[in-house]
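SAMPLE LOG
Freezer: B-3
Tube label: C17
Construct: single chain, 87 aa
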Amino acid sequence: MTPDVPDGSLQPSAAPPAAQKLSWREQRWQRRRRRKAFEEVLGWIFVPLIVGAVYWGLTAALDAAGTSPAAIVQGLQLFLSGGGQTP
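STRUCTURE (predicted):
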């Protein structure tokens, strides 16, 4: 055995102090912080999906009607410029 290691049993160490229980306000604050982080992640996932679905649905509806976004824009420009037939 080495001379710098003492023989005998180990002494029990002092237990660390118990963590103080959080108050109801601190618990509520933690729940809110977790919920906000979760909602932020969901937003980054669902917003692009929703935007893509709206674009896809609008394109499909215009195709079903036999027109296109370019034709709609051209018609609006013609209407706003005052062009077209006059009675």
